[in-house]
């Protein structure tokens, strides 16, 4: 084999590696070119391996760093999310409290408006009933016939549960003047046979019932009897009895716009029989029959 006369330009790196391998310092430049090439390839392979390991380590290091950075970003995002959640909760609580305050304020305002409306409606209702009462009192004062109906007068009374007041009338108010007259007379123990057919054994009960009705009406319409023997400031309430029925009826009917004395006069004129008038009527009927008889007999006599 021919010896190659051409010599490679030796690399310092390769020469240094050859010197370390053969323990020669400095390395010989007389080595075979093939050996030099072989050594160069070996060194290059080792270098590639070293670079490959370094690149792998660098890659792994960069990947770990990147992953750690991403983990930090995720942690940061979680912290930001938690902070945002806490902030939203705080804002939501503040908004809820604010809305509750606004709702309570609106509820109070609505209650005030409703109370004002109810008050105004109550005032309008009171005025309306008072006008109706005034008209009823006026009409009652014009009653002139025994069977004319009595116009009811309403008063303001609490309900059964005492939650409100309503305008109402007493359910036992007599319907006609005749019933008022009979009620007052029965309370005094007067049972006139011409209009009252109450059996004798039931008259005490009827009297007591009439007194109870008048007493209930007086209490309902705030009518109180006081003794006339005492001053107004020291006057004491008098219990209703048969001897002061006229006084109670006078005060009670005055509340209705009526006059008890007028009712008594009506009763005496229309309910009780009038002997004089009845006798005159019978006399007139007899004379009329006599005149008719004479006219039939005489044929020419004129009947007045």
UniProtKB/TrEMBL annotation:
Keywords: Coiled coil. Residues 288-304 have a biased composition (Basic and acidic residues). It comes from the Eukaryota. The keyword Coiled coil applies. Residues 271-304 are annotated as: Disordered. Residues 77-130 form a coiled coil. This is Uncharacterized protein. It comes from Stereocaulon virgatum.
